[in-house]
C-alpha cells in the first residue's frame, strides 16, 4: 500500500506554480547573459544531482525495468525538448505573448487526457480553465499588445514547447501511480540533461561549450539556483500531486503561475498593475479557488482505494 501524500494535492500544485513563477522571472533576466541551451544545461545539472542525492537519502525504490524506457522518453520530451524550445522562443517573443501561449496548455491537457486516459470533461472544469485563461490574458495585457508580434518563429517554438509539456503530463499520469515521484523526476531530468548536453556539443547558435568561458561566476550561481527551483523542487511537487488528481485538473493550476510572476515583479522591480490587470488577477484567483475545491479530498480518496 502506498503512503498518502503529506500535503493535499492543491497545496503541492500551488507550491509548484509558485516556484515556476519565481524561476520564470529569473530566466527572463538570465537569457540576457546566457544562450538558451547553455542555460538549460546549467540549470538541469545541479537539479539532477540534487534529485539523485534525494533518491539515495530517502532510499527510493527503483521501478521495474519496464518503466525505465517510458520514463526516459518522457524526460527527453520534458524538460529536454520542451524547455529547449521554450528558452529559444523566449529569446524572440515578448513575455506577454509567451504567457498567453502557455495559457493554452491546460486546454491541451484537457483534450489529451480525455482521448488518452478517458478522463471525463466536465463543464465546471472547462469553465474554470477558460476563466483562468482569460485572467492570464488580462494580467499579461496581451489584448493590448498582440500587435507587437514580430517573431512568428518564436511563437511556433513556444507552441511546440507547450504541446510537449501537455503530452508529458498526460502520459506521466499513466506512470506515476506505480513509480516513486522522486525517482521519476531524477531519471527524467537526467534524460533531459543528456538531451541538452548533446545539443551543446553540436554548437548550435543557441549555445555551445565555449559559452562557459565568458559567463561570470555570479550568473552561473544564479542559474544553478533557478534550476533547483524550476526543475528539481517544482517538478517533484508536481509529480507528487499528479499521483492523486486527474491530469486535466493538475494542468489547470498552470494559470496560477502569472500571479506569482506579477507579485514578484511588484516586490522586486516596483512594477504596478493596471485596472485591467487587477481584473485578470481576480479571475485567476477565482478559478484557483474553484480548482482547490475540486481537488480537495482527492488525495485521501485515492489513497483509500
Can you characterise this structure?
With 305 residues, the chain is mostly helical. It has helices at residues 9-30, 36-58, 65-90, 95-102, 105-117, 123-140, 152-173, 181-202, 217-242, 247-252, 257-269, 275-295, 298-303. The longest helix has 26 residues, at 65-90. The relative contact order is 0.22. Residues 1-5, 146-150 and 299-305 have low confidence and may be disordered.
Set out the fold topology.
Elements: H1 9-30, H2 36-58, H3 65-90, H4 95-102, H5 105-117, H6 123-140, H7 152-173, H8 181-202, H9 217-242, H10 247-252, H11 257-269, H12 275-295, H13 298-303
Helix pairs in contact: 1-9, 1-11, 2-3, 2-8, 2-9, 3-7, 3-8, 4-6, 4-7, 5-7, 6-12, 8-9
Count of helical stretches: 13
Helix content, binned percent: over 70%
Describe the sheet with the most strands: none
Mean pLDDT: 82
**Rg calc:** 19 Å
Outline of the structure:
The chain is mostly helical. It has helices at residues 9-30, 36-58, 65-90, 95-102, 105-117, 123-140, 152-173, 181-202, 217-242, 247-252, 257-269, 275-295, 298-303. The longest helix is centred in the N-terminal third of the chain and has 26 residues, at 65-90.
Which short descriptors sum up this protein?
single chain; 305 residues; mainly alpha; 74% helix; globular; disordered N terminus; disordered C terminus
